[in-house]
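During the no-cost extension, the postdoctoral fellow (Dr. R.K.) reprocessed legacy sequence entries with the updated structure-token encoder. One reprocessed record is reproduced below for audit purposes.
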Amino acid sequence: MSTLKNSLTFKRGLSLKNRIVMAPMTTKMSFYDGVITKDEREYYGLRSGEVGAVITGAANVQANGKGWEGELGVYDDRFIPGLAKLAATIKQNGTKAILQIFHGGRMTNSEILRNTQPIAPSAVPAERENAETPREMPSEEVFLLIENFKKATIRAIKAGFDGVELHGANTYLIQQFFSPHSNRRTDEWGGSLEKRYHFIDLLVDAVTEAVDNSGVKDFIVGYRFSPEEYETPGIRFEDTLYLVDHLADKPLDYLHISLNDCSRVSVSEEYQEKPMIQYVHEKIKGRVPLIGVGDVRSKADAEEVLQYAEMVAIGRSILIDPHWPSKVLNNQEELLRTKISQYDREELLLGNGVWEFLEGMMPERLIEEK
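Re-encoded structure tokens follow.
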């Protein structure tokens, strides 16, 4: 089993000083046009320096990929100066900066896109309230999207980041190609499981080749995925094991499972003897490092994750206590802040988007004001 203090070196040469990673979380702190703000840089800066790496919240690779207001943009060269400031802010005291890149697909709306219809693999709306029917992407537009992921990666390199993470989780566009719910195509991009994987296969190859051909050193590429969907039809855990098995043979530096509870068990009856993260780790068989995540609050929680992963991502705990890593690594858990109130928001640099996230996901850790 790995320990939190151990360093980790990826196949492309980048090394992390410890196994703790700040999980990617939506901030909604960028300007309306996707430019980074001073407040957002300070929010990340407060949580950098102690962790091995910070993975940013999602940055959209196309203008029509914007999923929410206040989202970071990486779809044009004009974002590079601001992204360079963000990368420099994160990279203090040896922390590595990883930019998560994505496209929202059908998980947005025409208001956010300024009267533009959302796009997706197929014209099938998401199963959520007020979901709009997206426009099905023609094949040439799919290839253009792959090219724009490559361009976004090159911008991340120019901005001084240490890596990118392909956001193939949480029902956004990359996942939408793999899902039989959002992908009803019968061409090269859909139909069978193998064809639904085709987009991911080409995307990973394109991005990793762009990195390897750029001449940059020690720049990594990761891939985040969600293990299953609840829609019918939808991604089942067996599908994800197929995905993981194929991704583990790709030139990726790590995989990153998206879970709200690291001990979560699959809804599929044939995979309920062990937590999903354990099945995933066994399927990988050491071919690529795995980041585990899911309501980690203590050192014991983190060490439990590291039984089935090489790194552990910390989300809400590092929002509540930015010095969670050093306190845990130095065996000072008695000093951890575990609850916060509205009065702590200014000190912790928690904007409205982050606060809404905390309120929705972990209300028991917020102190009510009397």
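Residues 8-365 form a domain with the TIM Barrel fold (CATH 3.20.20.70). The mean pLDDT is 96. The remaining legacy entries will be reprocessed before the final report is submitted.
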